[in-house]
Every structure is written in structure tokens, then in C-alpha cells.
Amino acid sequence: MKQFAVIGLGRFGASVATTLCGLGHQVLGIDESEARIQAMVDRLTHVVQADATDEDALRSLGLRNFDAVIVAIGHDLEASTLITLMLKDMGVREVVAKASSDLHGKVLEKIGADRVVYPERDMGVKLAHSLLSPRILDYIELDPNYSIVEMAASGELVGKSLRELNLRARLGINVLAFRRGEAVNVSPGGDDVVQEGDVLVVLGSNDAIGRLERLRG
Amino acid sequence: MKQFAVIGLGRFGASVATTLCGLGHQVLGIDESEARIQAMVDRLTHVVQADATDEDALRSLGLRNFDAVIVAIGHDLEASTLITLMLKDMGVREVVAKASSDLHGKVLEKIGADRVVYPERDMGVKLAHSLLSPRILDYIELDPNYSIVEMAASGELVGKSLRELNLRARLGINVLAFRRGEAVNVSPGGDDVVQEGDVLVVLGSNDAIGRLERLRG
Ligand SMILES: Nc1ncnc2c1ncn2[C@@H]1O[C@H](COP(=O)(O)OP(=O)(O)OP(=O)(O)O)[C@@H](O)[C@H]1O
Ligand SMILES: Nc1ncnc2c1ncn2[C@@H]1O[C@H](COP(=O)(O)OP(=O)(O)OP(=O)(O)O)[C@@H](O)[C@H]1O
């Protein structure tokens, strides 16, 4: 069991804190707002109402021995950077801070944040891609040229077996798995026939994946 | 080339809008704040300053023929839901709205949003998982039991060939690809030796992936 502290229990901070707690770890939540504290009091191990820019208050929490401290303050850049700086000075092993802009992120890195995250920016990029390729449900970018994608099957792909489709020879695409309803087949064979609504998990070059996307009509 | 409109150019909305624009599509940005409009004027196809809850103003933008309209307003739930409702009434084909809480999301679904996204919540969950499994860089959940993960190699894995490691027979884990520096090898063979800092992309049950995580010390 690990120990985490989350400073700033807004939408993002609360999500990090409740997820860690739900997975069985100890989580201390800190926020200056009474309302946010009340909202989280039954969902975290401990909660404390405090202005985390107050050094005495921060020191009194004994955060030094925690596995990681997350600073999830977006609008008050001064508070976010001041708190991050004090935490590193106090010897906290890992400080993860959320940034609201590239500039904010650069400052956080310079003053010693171990990791900087950009939740809104990253999800914005992901939504934009999913609007352009609505059938791509999820993806891992292996490098600039290769990806693994989860793709809903339709059009020309439906009703054919993997052997007939011959995606490896035609496009250089490897079918890793496919899902039908709740069941996943992690070693698909040539005789498996693709049906409408199946989800294919494929590995290939981004060009080949683009061609596969167009195949489906 | 597609046409999108983004209402609310905060951190998330601006990220969606600039990503779509950067990929060569037309993007109309709308915000009631002069400062946000000024910040975006050179980065989007068009920008308009308007209070989107004003029905006449919204109708005058001719959004009906856009491929999708994104409503990215988080703090003013009433504005977000009112705007979403008006857009569907006007016949906009696809309305994607951001929600700040489960309750907000339920209301948006009920009034006809085609898709509801929870950027802060989802990124909070992802950060929590990455704090608990720091070597897992990215993952696709295939179903509750199987995943594809990108994992940094270390410990017992280093210095051995894939044949020696024999991960398929020992753990039922399929090594799909591995990355060393910038280069990705999408068809790894038995003779490939794992080095410190390599990233393995593997497919297996979540239990087996957990055992592999522990192997590395
Ligand atoms: N100095 C501080 N000490 C403690 N808590 C603080 C401090 N400053 C801000 N907070 C709290 O941090 C939380 C998040 O802050 P803020 O609203 O700036 O971020 P945000 O990026 O909009 O959050 P999110 O997008 O996660 O909802 C709020 O609940 C706020 O009360
Ligand atoms: N009625 C409205 N019409 C047009 N724009 C609006 C309206 N209400 C809010 N906005 C704009 O929407 C943007 C985002 O709003 P808000 O701050 O509520 O969301 P947020 O969830 O904190 O944003 P983010 O996390 O993306 O920064 C702001 O730039 C704001 O000016």
C-alpha cells in the first residue's frame, strides 16, 4: 500500500485522488475550499482544509515520506509553482504537477517538478483525432510512423475471413486481436470471419492504417 | 477538408480547435471573452466573440452544416446545457460536449448531446494508474482481462534474448514490438536481446502483465 497526497481537489485532482483510493492506497486530500473538502471527506483516507502556499501548514502535514505528491491547481499559477518548489525543498521524492499552459509547464520543470502533466491539452488532442477518425477507438503511438489502433470494423471488411482479407500481405498490417461484444480473441486465425460491429486491434504503419480506414467505406 | 466549430476556447477547447486546424481542417472558434478571442485569432480559421447562450447570435453563425460542434464550457453548466440543446434544435449533426461531473454528463446526454467527454476525470484516472505502475508508458484495455501495454524494460529482463525469456510459454504474453531509442522493431524475433531502456509492447492478460511487472525487480 502506498501513500499519496493530492493538493487541489478540483475535477482533475479529485479524479486522481479517488482513483488511487479506490485501488486500495492511502490518500490525503488538501484544498483551501471548504466545499471541496466536504465533497471529498467520505471518499479519501484523510482530508485537510489548508492554503498550501502557507509553508507552516504544508510542513505540518509531514509529506516527506509520501510516495508522491500531486499538485493539481490550474488557475493560480503562482500557488502551483510556489507549492511545487516548497515540496521539493522539503525533500518530497516525487512531485507531479498539472500545468495550464506550456509556459506554466516550463516554469514547473525548471523549479524541480519531477513530472508535469497537461490534462486538458492532451485530451483535446485525443478528441480532435477521434473526430477525424471516428472508428478509431483507442491507439498507442509506437513511433512517428507506427501505431497500434483499435478500430471498429465496417464496409468492405465485413463478411470476409482474415485469410481472405490478407491484410499482412496487402497492407503490411498485423491483426493482433479482435473483439466481438464482450469477448476478446487474442490469437485470431485465418478462418475467423469479421462481422459488423467487431473491433479489430491492428499494428501497422500509419499510412497502412490510413488505407485500412478508407477500405471500410 | 472538414468544418468544425468550438464553443468555449479554454484550455481544452483551444487544444481541440488548434489540433483540428493544424491537421488542415476549417475551425470556427467562439468565446465570450475578448482575451480568449485575441489569444486564438491567429491560430484558427475564424474566431467570433459572442455569448453562445444568445440564440440569435448562435443562429447567425450558420452551424447547421458543420461536421461537428464542440461545446467546451466547464464551469457554467447552465450555459453548456442550454447551448447543446439549441445546437441540436438547429439540426447540427454532431454535438460533442464536455462535462464537469457525472450529473452534468447525464443532463447533456438526456438533452441530446451525441457524445459527452470528461477530460479531467479521464486524465486523472490515467495519472493514478501511471503512478502505481511507473514503467507502463501507455496502454489499451482490450477488455476487463486483457490489455496491450508499453513497458520500460529493466531488472531480470535485461541482457536476455526473447527466446531465453520465453514469455509466451511462461506467462502467455505476446511481445508485439519493441523500441530502442527512436527505432521500432514491429516483428521481434527470438534472437533479439533486451537492453536497459528498451520499451516492450506486449499483449496479455492483466494478471500476466502484473507478473511481468514484478519480474523486472
Ligand atoms: N493555495 C491553495 N491551497 C489549496 N488548494 C488550492 C489552492 N489554490 C487553489 N486550490 C484548490 O485547487 C483546486 C483546483 O484549482 P483550480 O480551479 O485552479 O484548477 P482547475 O485547473 O480549474 O481544476 P480542474 O480543471 O481540475 O477542475 C480548487 O478546488 C481550489 O480550491
Ligand atoms: N456563454 C458562453 N458563450 C461563449 N463562451 C463561453 C460562455 N461561457 C463560458 N465561455 C467560455 O468558455 C471557456 C471555458 O469555460 P470554463 O472556464 O467554464 O471551462 P473550463 O472547464 O475551466 O475550461 P478548461 O478546463 O478547458 O480551461 C472560457 O474561455 C469562457 O470564456
Characterization of the model:
The structure is a homodimer of 217-residue chains. The first copy, chain A, has 217 residues and is of the alpha/beta class. Chain A contains nine helices and eleven strands. Chain A has helices at residues 11-22, 34-40, 55-59, 77-89, 102-110, 119-132, 162-165, 167-171, 206-215; strands at residues 3-7, 26-31, 46-49, 68-71, 95-98, 115-117, 136-141, 146-152, 174-180, 183-185, 199-205. In chain A, the strands form two sheets. A six-stranded parallel beta sheet of chain A has the order 3-2-1-4-5-6, sandwiched between helices. In chain A, a hairpin with a 4-residue loop joins strand 7 (136-141) and strand 8. Chain A starts with a strand and ends with a helix. In chain A, 39% of the residues are buried.
Supply the helix-strand structural class of chain A.
alpha/beta
Number of DSSP helices of chain A?
9
Topology order of chain A in helix (H) and strand (E) letters: EHEHEHEHEHEHEEHHEEEH
Q: Tell me which oligomeric state these chains represent.
A: homodimer
What is the number of strand segments of chain A? 11
Give me the Rg of chain A, rounded: 23 Å
Helix content of chain A: 25-40%
Distance between the termini of chain A: 50 Å
Q: Greatest contact pair?
A: A-B, 57 and 56 residues
Strand ordering within the main sheet of chain A = 3-2-1-4-5-6
**Proportion of residues in β-strands of chain A:** 25-35%
Main sheet overview of chain A: 6 strands, parallel
The pLDDT mean of chain A sits at 95
Rough outline of chain A: elongated
Low-confidence stretches of chain A: none
Say which molecules are bound, naming each kind only once: adenosine-5'-triphosphate
